[in-house]
What does this fold into?
Amino acid sequence: MNSVQTTPQAQRQFISGNEAVAQAARDADCKVAAAYPGTPSTEILEYIAQYPELYTEWSINEKVSLEVAIGASLAGSRALCAMKHVGVNVASDALMTQTLIGAIGGLVLVVADDVGLSSSQNEQDSRYWGRFAHIPVLEPSDAQEAYQMTRIAFELSEQYEVPVMVRLTTRICHVKGVVVADDPIKADSKGFSKDPSRFVMVPGNARNRIPLMMARDKVLAAATEVHPLNRVESGSDDSIGFITSGAAYYHVKEAYPDAPVLKLGFSHPVPVEMIRQFASSVDKLVVAEEVEPLLETELKAAGIELYGKDVLPKIGELAPQVLAPCIEKLRGNDPTEKVIPTTEVFPRPPTMCVACPHLGIYYCLSHIKNTIISGDIGCYTLGAGHPWNALDTTISMGASLSVAQGLDKGRAEQDQNKNVLAVIGDSTFLHMGMQGLLDITYNKGNVTILLLDNRAVGMTGGQDAPSSGLDIHGEQTMQIDFRKLCEALGVKSERIHEVNPYELPRLFKALRSETKIAEPSVIITNQPCVLTERYSKLPPLKVEDDKCTGCSNCLDVGCPAILVTRRETVIKPNGREKELSFVEIDTAACTGCNLCTNTCAPDAIVPALNVNKINAVEIKV
Amino acid sequence: MNQAITAADTVTNILVVGIGGQGVMTAADVLAQTALNLGYDVKKTEVAGMAQRGGVVTSHVRFGKQVLSPSIQPGDADMMIAFEPAEALRWHTHLKPSAVAMVNSYPLEPPVVSVGLFDYPDNPIGQMQTEQVNLHDFDAGAAAIELGDRRLVNSIMLGAIADHLPFSAEALESALLTRFAHKGEALSELNRQAFELGRRAFNHQ
It folds into this structure.
């Protein structure tokens, strides 16, 4: 019987793991919460920001967010920072030394791994940081546990004076379930006490902290052996027992309800003796952990015989339909029995939005030859796809500029005539791109930079950033001036151009002239993300069918509101075949940005309604 | 042919599928909220990679005495509400042999199909009818446009499925209207009409 059913209806909330973490932070009397948006963790801070009793901020990047949280912890208050898995790579510089200092006020690092890569560039396993940074790792299996474990994380952090990681995965962050909250508490802020031998990590001080960290590891290892978050659930069929954590726990329970399970909620340090005892109670032991074989490797090193990634996949989720065939095979059964056929249907890759200001940029980039285009992380990464195919690299946040510098300096003889470009969005530029620009100007690089300023963190849902002039609460704050910033970073004033990305002729001109000049230059676009309130729709357009020549130029814009109605193959006077595509515009979706009219030679694209002639898109600054 | 499923001790699995922007997640939320209101344990999960950008959205709603994994396994769905016929075809293998499928027959072609890189299936609904699925289809897209807003598709689809759920249509309608309550009476009334239209459209077949 699920405990949630015995709770009065009014106290049963139906919320996601991310919202549960936010509520837990408030109920634990957390004072400071900081994050940079990143799927699947973004909503944690969005929910916390709704509680006026906490200080919350969108930080510039994940390292900054962790450092803000560290400062609040040193000030004696409880603090939380949240990030996606790749964010920890950015924050790790601070983390790896903070662990020597340890926490004063409870310090919780919530990390959301994108198991299955729904919206990420890799699938790294954040549990490694627990080992690397010598910190405890808690792994909730659903929203209720996300609530409880976030509360416990603050307590553990203060009890053992250590930062604590709560490791979520997409299947915890975004799954809604029934959550019953506990009573809120009041945490006593200890205040800031000067303690340079602990807080000033020069070699002499840091050296003295290392043995303390090692001693803490031992205390934590003893604690996990008896902690209630680690528990054995007996089963009637002990032919196979499972050790599992996080989302995989429920998958195991679903697929093998009769199997004994050792559920690890406090999964690092690993409770080796508890596991050794469990191992002796089952015929075969399987570690069902998502992504990397961490537990498996440590347990094998401890001499425990078990199965792991030798039978289970190393990538993606261990959903019941993934788990079951592997386990059946291990049992010697026919694994094909449960396989359900799939139906082949066309893909629906993500597209840019109707009227997206990036469309004009990629239209131009796809029509310019001899380029190497270094890309970055954001909506504009979609420029690598159809119909533009105008992005050659994407690696990490901010990498477009520095990778472009390397593409320029490392170019081979045969690439001497190519132009190196970098494409980056406003928020990504501020996150980690600025340093790359400074590197280019300082080291006399030759890169043409497209800084796509749509005044929002678009891909994660249009959050604010210093480019929007609004804070996490939507209140006015400073707004960065990109022209001044680029000048300060060493770009010559005459090499900086601000353009309206809906004006294709000006865009082409700026691109052609700047790529010819062997100096760093920056082309800044100035139109807002269409998903934000800053964007104003204009009256929609339509195609006059009798005027459409089927040239398909407008399709190169890549706007999802332009649809092909029929195709024809004609023989040109020179005898060659030509494919014609006649189009229509989905008037209900069109917001009249006029990009496609710029590409239509026969002027077949006209206002859909009887309104005054539309000139150019309204410029809002 | 009202084949309402019962939830007694088992878990009811409802798959809601469609395309980003169609209101798939809202419809799934309303189903989940109704089950929650009736005291069930409920889990809801989405596979919505970049859904805001025209991608496939699949929402899994599971409810019963106790729900373990949030995901519906292939072959285990009791019901599918499909907002688009090709999406119905994509996911129909997730259905149990006796399952109910409620399909909006209004097709939406993505740009990759429109420009000719991929083909839209010739007759997605016909293809499914050859399988063992208790399938019902109607043009909810046209109905929504008739009511004045294509975003009403989700309320129409909820209305269409309302008499086939292990709880009453009224419980579902009440959860739907509660969701729109703070958005003004006009919108609430429009969604009520959409729900009723969906309910009628199906029951008259």
